[in-house]
Structures are given as structure tokens and as C-alpha cells.
Specification:
Elements: H1 7-23, H2 31-37, H3 43-55, E1 59-62, E2 65-68, E3 85-88, E4 91-94
Helix pairs in contact: 1-3, 2-3
Length: 97
């Protein structure tokens, strides 16, 4: 059975990652730091949502570091909303407009 994603959690995690990278010279947070600073409660869930964000193209992975699509960590938060939800089968993930 596929796990159902929560688009609000995906947006929360994405926002935290961007804010963390802005505050830490582009360094990526650990999965533990994602758990400690969002409403999720396990590193497996953090990994799951990061994979979803990678899959829809909001982020990429380069040399083990998360990169924002387009390479700019200063994004307009209003551009990414729950309205911008992409549904793929039973999995729902957030996308950009």
C-alpha cells in the first residue's frame, strides 16, 4: 500500500529547508533537524517528504546537498501554496506554479 502524502507537511518541510539553508550559508539540514523543526516525528517521514520534493522538482540533490530548483534560496513563499498540489496516483505532493 502506498503512503498518502500531506501537501501541508510537504510545504512546511520545504519552507524549513529553504529557511535553514538561508541561515546556514547554503548547508542542508539533517533529517533529525527537519524533525526537530517541523510537525513530523520521525526521520523516515522526513526522508519520505524530501524524496517527494525531489521527485516533483522543487529540489535537486547535488554532491549530497539539497539544492532548490533554479539554484536560488530566496524564493517567494506566496508562489507555493496548497492550491499548487500535484496528485500522482495515490501520492500527493506540493509543486510550484
Amino acid at each position: 500500500m502506498s503512503k498518502q502524502s500531506n501537501p501541508m507537511l510537504a510545504l512546511e518541510i520545504f519552507s524549513f529547508i529553504v529557511e535553514y539553508k538561508q541561515a546556514h550559508d547554503g548547508n542542508s539540514p539533517t533529517y533529525t533537524e527537519i524533525v526537530e523543526n517541523t510537525s513530523i516525528n520521525s526521520t523516515n517521514t522526513a526522508w519520505y517528504y524530501v524524496q517527494k520534493l525531489l521527485k516533483v522538482g522543487l529540489m535537486t540533490m547535488k554532491d549530497g546537498k539539497l539544492c532548490l530548483a533554479g539554484g536560488n534560496w530566496h524564493y517567494n513563499k506566496r508562489r507555493i501554496t496548497v492550491k499548487d498540489v500535484y496528485t500522482n496516483g495515490t501520492n500527493t505532493v506540493a509543486t510550484t506554479s
